[in-house]
Amino acid sequence: MAENTDGAVNGAAQPQGGAQLNLQRVYIKDASFEAPNAPHIFQQQGQPNIELNLSQRVNQLGDDVFEVVLGATVTCKVEDKTAYLAEVQQAGIFGLSGFDEGAREAILSTYCPNTLFPYARQVVSDLVQNGGFPPFLLQPINFDALYAEQLRRRAEGANQPNQGLNA
């Protein structure tokens, strides 16, 4: 029998010293729901106004292990009264090895939040519906475009002359 030297095991190709990315765990780091004007808000007539705030932070846990936390805060107001406030911090632990610094930053800023977003979306939806309000689904977010905008702003900031105070 011939010896297999191409790195295949049971017909599946195995990476040989290349970059690797793996999702180790997905979890809810924090979640909260408030309906400060209930039960009166349920009888309020008017068009709801919904505001979404997203945040992201990355914590390095080890040499090639990172925690990415995607924060989503949804505030719904009817006229000037808050109907509800739903906050979720959806987190994941990602292993990244063999990537240069630029590629690692791009993955942590785009791929990782894209992976976490459906989980955060579901938690927000469940909180809102369990709070007695009509179902609400967050619209898809283009994290690639947000990262490109962040890079553009960073480049613009680097090209700006120092605008210090003149004495």
CATH class category name = Alpha Beta
Under the CATH scheme, the architecture is: Roll
Radius of gyration, taken over Cα atoms and rounded to an integer in Å: 22 Å
- For CATH, the homologous superfamily is named as SecB-like
Q: Strands across the major sheet, in which order?
A: 3-6-5-4
Largest sheet: 4 strands, antiparallel
Number of domains: 1
Strand count: 6
Number of continuous helical runs: 2
- Poorly predicted regions: 1-16
What's the helical proportion of residues? 25-40%
Question: What is the end-to-end distance?
Answer: 83 Å
The CATH topology, please? Bacterial Protein-export protein SecB
- What class, by secondary structure content? alpha+beta
Q: What shape does the CA trace take?
A: elongated
Query: What is the mean pLDDT?
Result: 87
Strand content of the residues, in percent?
A: 35-45%
The succession of helices and strands, N to C, reads EEEEEEHH
Description:
The protein contains two helices and six strands. By secondary structure, it is an alpha+beta fold. The protein has one domain: Bacterial Protein-export protein SecB (Roll), CATH 3.10.420.10. Strands 3-6-5-4 form a four-stranded antiparallel β-sheet. Helix 1 (about 100-130) packs across helix 2. The longest helix has 30 residues, at about 100-130.
